[in-house]
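Hey, quick one: can you model this chain's 3D structure?
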Amino acid sequence: MDDLGLHPGRRHDPRRHGQDLPSRPRQVTAPQDTRDQKSPRNFSTWTGAHGIYLEDLYVTPAYRKHGYGRRLLTALARTCVERGYARLEWSVLDWNEPAIGFYKSLGAVQMDEWTVHRLTGDALRTLGEA
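Sure thing. Here's the predicted structure for all 130 residues.
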């Protein structure tokens, strides 16, 4: 795993995403190099500090249990620590017990007091055209 690296992601049609992923399992797709100040950083008005929000983490089943997910999250956590960021956060579907167990094994805490809200389709258009 010494050659694990970042592969810059691009905005594109999500239906093509799988076709554009690197063929080498040791590469990681990320929006930007984490050294770039345009990395997926956020700002919490609650803590008054920056953090990183991880949009997606997917490891092909054949490569799970080999440390790839842990290595990626370790690298992101290290980036947070080096920059003085207050947190690293992501979302996981409530039925994805293997992922939840993995995240808990890293010390992550489930945020039960927060819920996700989303506008799509007609509701999005209605509000956007108001």
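One thing worth noting: Confidence is low (pLDDT under 50) at residues 29-35.
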